[in-house]
Amino acid sequence: MRFRITGQGWQLGDALVPAETIVDLAKSDRWSKLAKGKTIPINATPLDEEASGTTRSVSRSETSVRRRLELIAKGDGFRLN
């Protein structure tokens, strides 16, 4: 699973993963090792299908809004009410 940290970074224990860091759980670099077994943060940008499909702890309404925004970005004509 690969994802990029966006926003203000990602706090992992005593460490702060800097913004724009790419975390690849198949690698053994510092950040990837710290991230293993954790749910990817809400401020992450998925870089592969596995990260895109990760379940996050968000409300149904937030999930619905995110899905609608994804559909708008794809240009399928679906619009928010």
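the 2nd protein, sequnce then structure:
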Amino acid sequence: MLRVVKLILFHILLSFRGLILIASKLLSIACLCGLFLVMSISELNHIPMSAKITLLTCGIIFTSICWFYDYLILYLKRVIIRVPISSEKRHDVAIKGENDSYS
């Protein structure tokens, strides 16, 4: 059951990858620029510290989503299990063509 959930989540996250990455980049830029403007403009110094911490936290969260989204997709990737057909070891043999030389 868990494998099915991981497979469905993998395909959903992969389908919306571009949209989520662009949105998280834009939101992180907006939050961090808003924090910079609030800290630098003297008329906006009356804004409480909780709002400034919220802007900083949202900026960090959206930046981490942007950085680690691909790692999450790779974590959910389906593992391919190779089952040997016979008990004999497989030997890869290179076949020489007519024009190949042995030197």
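The two ends are 56 Å apart (CA to CA). Residues 2-76 form one domain.
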